[in-house]
Structures are given as C-alpha cells and as structure tokens.
Amino acid sequence: MTAPVLSFFHVREASDPLLSDSVTKLVEEFAKLPGIGKKSAERLTYHVLRIHQSEALALAEAIRNVKQNVRYCRTCYNLTEQEECEICLDPRRDHTQLCVVEQSRDLMALEQAGSYRGLYHVLLGRIAPLDGIGPEQLTIEALVERVRGGGFKEVIMATNPTLEGDGTALYISNLLADLPLSITRLARGITTGSVLEFANKEILADALSGRQKF
Ligand SMILES: [Zn+2]
Prior knowledge:
By secondary structure, the chain is an alpha/beta fold.
C-alpha cells in the first residue's frame, strides 16, 4: 500500500492538505533536525515509508531509549546511562587533572585521541552573547564548585579555538585564577576557527601534549 503514497509524494508538497497527516507530521519532524532541509526531510520520510515496519520501529525505539535512558553525569555532565559516567567512576584515571570541553562530542574526540587520562567537565555549550547564551546557561557554576572542592592540580581548557570558545575559556580561567592549580590550554596545533570534534586524532594528541599556560 505504500506505492501510491510515494508517487503522490513526489508531485506534491509535503504540506499539501491531500497528503496524509501522518506523512506530513513525519516530514515536519525530520525537517526540525539540524542540517535537514525540506527536501531531505521528504527523502527520509520516503525511506521510512519504504522500509520494513520492524526496521522503522527499531529507529523509533532507539530514539525513545536515548531520551528515556541517557542523562547527564551528575559530576561532569558527560552523557551516561547511570548517575555518574564511567570516566568519573574510573579509579585508574588521573583525578587531579580536569579537561574542560564544550560538548560530549569533544570529549569523545579527545578520548579517541587516546593520550589523556584525566577527568572532564562538559560545559554543554559556550558563552555566545549574540545567541543569547550566557554563563548561567552552561555548567560553569558546577565546574567552579567542583574545582573549588579541591583535589585538582591542573585544569586544561579545551574549548574550541573560536572567538566564543576562547572567550569562554578566558571567563572560566578568571573565575579559577585565585586557586593553587595550573590552568592550561590546548596547543594551537588546532587551527583557529576549527572545531575540536573534527580534528584528527594525531592533531588532538599533539594539542594535548603541547598544552600551554593559559
Ligand atoms: Zn562524569
């Protein structure tokens, strides 16, 4: 029964009142995803209509599970399915080093580089006044409290080398300036304006080993 829907889909706009409400709704939902325009949303909807029901429901289930089971680590704000993430709980990691990143994706990129053995703190964004994002919308207060709690010898600023990433790192380093610990930043092997999650492993490993005083 899917074929008639599909042929019709190609000649009509997704918002066409003649299209089924369910199809229109799915196109609208896909179109809300980052990087997905209307055409891509229609293509994805077409794909879902065509695949087997079990495959489509597995996708729906995966989305449901992520939303129901994944949360932020109460300590570092990394993604986890427990109260606290595996990195925070790992006694083999260096609990005196703290690496501050913007997003979990950056943490994953650094983990894949494989040379860092300390802990992390995920800011959940960066200070971006033009987008209306101030320090209070990030996890900066929790970070400062965590660092003031003691035990850290070094805080590594690994925000992205962009204007906003640098500004965020500077803001945080000022808040921590009176503490007896060293504040460093990643070496500039990472091109200014680039984004950590897309840097390759070798560059990230070099950036970590060559880090400098903030
Ligand atoms: Zn954690």
